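Hi there. Long-time user, first ticket. I'm pasting a complex I've been working with (about 844 residues overall). I'd like to know whether the download I got is complete or cut off, because the file seemed smaller than I expected. Thanks.
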Amino acid sequence: MSTTNRDFPISARAERATVQPIGELMAKGAEKDIISLAAGLVDEETLPARQIAALFADFIRERGPKVLQYGVNEGLHSLRRKVLDRLASSDGPSARDVPLSRVMLSTGSQQMLYILTEIMVDPGDIVITAAPTYFVYLGTLQLAGARIVGIPADEDGMSIDALESAIDGIVKAGDGPRLKLVYVTTYFDNPSGVSLSVERRRQLLRVVQSSGAVHPLVIEDAAYRELSFGDADTPSIWSFDDHGANVAHLGTFSKPFSPGLRTGFAVLPRAIAEKASILKCSHDFGSANLTQHLIDYCIERGLYDSNVEVLRKTYAAKCALMCQCLERDMRGLALWRAPGGGLYVWVDMPGFNTGPSGDLFANCASEGVIYVPGQFSYPDPAAGPKSKMRLCFGPATASDIERGIGRLARAARRTPPSGGAR
Amino acid sequence: MSTTNRDFPISARAERATVQPIGELMAKGAEKDIISLAAGLVDEETLPARQIAALFADFIRERGPKVLQYGVNEGLHSLRRKVLDRLASSDGPSARDVPLSRVMLSTGSQQMLYILTEIMVDPGDIVITAAPTYFVYLGTLQLAGARIVGIPADEDGMSIDALESAIDGIVKAGDGPRLKLVYVTTYFDNPSGVSLSVERRRQLLRVVQSSGAVHPLVIEDAAYRELSFGDADTPSIWSFDDHGANVAHLGTFSKPFSPGLRTGFAVLPRAIAEKASILKCSHDFGSANLTQHLIDYCIERGLYDSNVEVLRKTYAAKCALMCQCLERDMRGLALWRAPGGGLYVWVDMPGFNTGPSGDLFANCASEGVIYVPGQFSYPDPAAGPKSKMRLCFGPATASDIERGIGRLARAARRTPPSGGAR
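Hi, the file is complete. Here it is re-exported in full:
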């Protein structure tokens, strides 16, 4: 008797695992003659392949074959030490006093987002995010069965008044114990490009700490922190969490160095670090040891910091070019704000429907350009605005940016007003 | 109001995440003057660090900076193609016809075990394993809230009669729909060292296919397949699964090449591959791209296969030495069977209690040697034999093996019979 045609009796989590429409869209971006302003990749020209090749023999000679052995579940000690040292220089010297047991490396910061969600969220639990927010994380929350509450944001990031009233509402409804996470991208948000203001960072922490909810964990996603176009850095939310009791601070070596090394980091409250360590062991008992050693070595040799400087200049120039092209081709059709860092310009096209089944998206595809429809970044796409799009200047060349925005403008001029949004 | 002293309201999964005693034990192995015959690492001398350093410049020149960019969620196409080509030469040419969408790379095969368990198991669901079995996976099953049913094994691996009667019992109790996974290590098992006989491979598949259970997934863990000391290979269970409908075949590049590159692979039934792809994207949207490219390149340059040959000779010699030392020092105290491959000798010491709080373990630690107590490898440690231990000859030098077994024998002679087991 063959079981070929019987379905597997899958888990409730797997039942919630549905194909994200963004996947098809990214596949389209890989087609010939399509300029993708969608994919959130980095600029391949800036990847330090030649420099890593030049130091690799020294690296192996100095570190030895242990770089090819199993590593430590929580990540290479010396690199975790460097995470704290680097946080100390941006957020204050007390970061150096954090025990290493609260620092963990992961396969990109995405894996840490997954593990933290596993630790905190049962199906039906509540997670607060900005609206819009990082769409991959919305998929993770969907898998976990979370109820997502989106908080509107403006040019200073998530609205604290709206956050406070949302938490009040949750608590009054008797759901205080079910509010588990507040997720916020503090630097050059994906997709909106905005940073949470310093005053709001303090306020957010205060609101969460003094709420009637039991003890939600604040996840601060600082993936884009180092990709600032200016010189000023802003203290993290984590730096205001005096007892290290409320905030998980997540960063990555992907965006500011090399995504292919797939290494993110987190500084966690003690109780959360203990659970994360057990889960990480069960996930994979440690991310790739070779790439952790390589990042550690590149930091020691100065290659990491010099490369960050290159990236900041490169992305600042690309961002400026994209905004110039928008100004040249899209004035009157679109609104946008030049971000102070990161990889994205968040564009509003009032009167247009930017959705994946709308005319604009189809016309863009036929002109040969794609973008990420804004609706993917909203917890409830039906309730979000229909007129937004995310443009990424990360992997695009200058010529891609110029031609891509030109194609976008041609598509927009061919597209009848939808009357849908605004 | 500070929340420092309030506990986080963690998830049910995180409540099940408890520290495994094996962790402390491994930490002990890292202490000075302790010879660890416990840790399941590989021989550092065999790690091809020098050879990789020698080809790294060519690698970067030929592949370019894309090796440092984000990779593909499911893993590098050319390496997944090689997985199928290699399976074709060991399991028959039809492996080449499997669509690449059913092949996935992961952060070691452990990550694929985790994801498959997530896909199939809800709390209270039933998973069948051998008893003894791979203890890290027992921790993963505990996190998932699985009820584990252990099936006794002999020198040909898991008993098929016992498997059949266990499944019958599950179905008769009305739990057929809750039987989700049958996990089996087919080559040179961890910890027992035995391989499942070819006849039993066919029988196992037949029993699962014809059972009254709904459609349990067979996970074939072939992590040690390439570490055979002889020339004969055995067809995998997967090779008998004509419609690719029942078996997930898992392998790894860790044990036969370099664990620090942290890359495992799986060939999955179609429906499972679709779900695994969604979950993998949410876990990390792809394991380290650099290390996948590096393995792919090392296979193309012949370094992979030549290194496997070195490993097989090295481990065969170490295994022979360990068995000689056991013969010399432990005759009359212990029973064991020389394995045909892998990294472990499974030792029985009738009349002794090998548990972590027993006298033997304490005396070993004071003599300066540690092993993995057998009880960790049983789904129900209380019901398993008390007299087993796992010895690993992977990372130990010849001198470590000689001195380690000597210390073990001294400890055994100092230990009063427990009268506990047998």
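A couple of notes from our side: DSSP finds 13 helices and 14 strands in chain B. Residues 1-5 of chain B have pLDDT under 50 and may be disordered.
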